[in-house]
Amino acid sequence: MAKTVKKAAKKAAVKKAVKSMKNVYYFGGGKADGKGSMKELLGGKGANLAEMAGLMKLPVPPGFTITTEVCTYYWDNKKNYPSSLKAEVESNLKKVEKETKKVFGSVDNPLLLSVRSGARASMPGMMETILNIGLTEKTIPGMIKKTGNERFVYDAYRRLIMMYSDVVMEKAAGIEPKDDKGIRKVLDGMLHDVKSKKGVKDDTDLTAEDLKTLCAEFKKTVKNVLGKEFPDNPMLQLWGAIGAVFSSWNGKRAIAYRNIEKIPHEWGTAVNVQAMVFGNMGTDSATGVAFSRNPGNGDSHFYGEYLINAQGEDVVAGIRTPSPMNKWSKNTHSEHLPTLEQVMPKAYKELDGIQKKLEKHFRDMLDIEFTIEQGRLWMLQCRVGKRNGTAAVQMALDMVKEKLISQNEAVLRVTASQLDELLHPAIDPKAEALAKIVGKGLPAGPGGASGKVVFTSEAAMALKAKGEKAILVREETNPEDVEGMRAAEAILTQRGGMTSHAALVARGWGKCCIVGCGELEINLSKKTASIGSVTFKEGDFITLNGTKGFVYLGQLKMLEAGEGNNNLTKFLDMCDKIKRLDVRTNADTPEDAVRAKKFGAKGIGLFRIEHMFYGTNAEKPLFILRKMIVSKTTEERTKAVNELFPFMKKAIKGTIKAMAGFGVTIRLMDPPLHEFIPQQKEVKEQVCKAMGITMEEFDSRAAVLHEVNPMMGHRGVRLGVTYPEITEMQSRAILESAAELIKEGVKAMPEIMVPVVCHENELIDQRAIIERVYKEVVAKTGVKKLPLSVGTMIEIPRAAIMSHKIAEQADFFSFGTNDLTQMTFGFSRDDIGGFMGAYLEKGVLKNDPFQTLDQDGVGYLIKQGVKGGRSTKAKLKIGICGEHGGDAKSVEFCHREGFNYVSCSPFRVPIARLAAAQAVAKEIKTKKK
Ligand code: PEP
Ligand code: MG
Question: What are the binding positions for substrate in this chain (predicted)?
Answer without folding.
Answer: 608, 667, 795, 816-819
